[in-house]
Amino acid sequence: MITRGFPNVISSDLAGTTAWYVDLLGWVTEFDSDWFVHLTAPDDGGVELGIIAADHPIVPSGVVPGGGGILLTFVVDDVDSVHRRAIELGYRVVEPPTDLFYGQRRMILTDPTGTVVDISSECQPSQAFLDSLGVVAES
Fold first, then answer.
1. Which stretches of the chain are DSSP H helices?
2. Which of 66, 82, 65, 71 is nearest to 27 (CA)?
3. From CA 67, how far away is CA 28, in angstroms rounded?
4. In terms of Cα–Cα distance, which of 112, 72, 75, 121 is closest to 91?
5. Would you say 120 and 75 are in contact if contact means Cβ atoms under 8 Å apart?
């Protein structure tokens, strides 16, 4: 039985990567050492993120910063306010907030390690998508 799970970002700049997540999304630092930082979402301690120093022996051989093949997704109340915050902080926004057909308003960033981060909020799905599911749109 799985009792817990959370992603870990491998970073060559532990402090900088931690600051990126804390400053942008308000993560709470639950544990902070010279090789590992454990963060939780400010409103839900069950939403967790770890950041591990790339040069620490605990990192498996061949694992490098950059998150190749990984997309971290965090759902927030208002993606547009997070977008404004990202711009203020000078963070690299790959894709500004865009409404997607399936009912998510999404923006894409890259964190300091190069990991792709999807920040999303709910929006109205397209009628074509609802029709494909046989769902009647809310009025």
1. 14-25, 79-89, 127-133
2. 82
3. 22
4. 112
5. yes
| Residue 41 Cα to chain centre, angstroms | 11
Q: Which residue has the higher pLDDT, 76 or 139?
A: 76
How far apart CA 110 and CA 93 sit, in angstroms, is 7
Side chain identity at residue 131, one-letter code = D
On whether the CB atoms of residues 53 and 36 are closer than 8 A, the answer is yes
Which domains are delineated in the chain? 8-57+64-133 (3.10.180.10)
Tens digit of each residue's pLDDT (9 = 90 or more) over 28-58 = 999 999 999 999 999 887 999 999 999 999 8
97, 80 Cβ separation under 8 angstroms? yes
Of 82, 120, 90, 115, nearest to 104 by C-alpha is 120
List pLDDT tens digits, range 74-133: 999 999 999 999 999 999 999 999 999 999 999 999 999 999 999 999 999 998 998 899
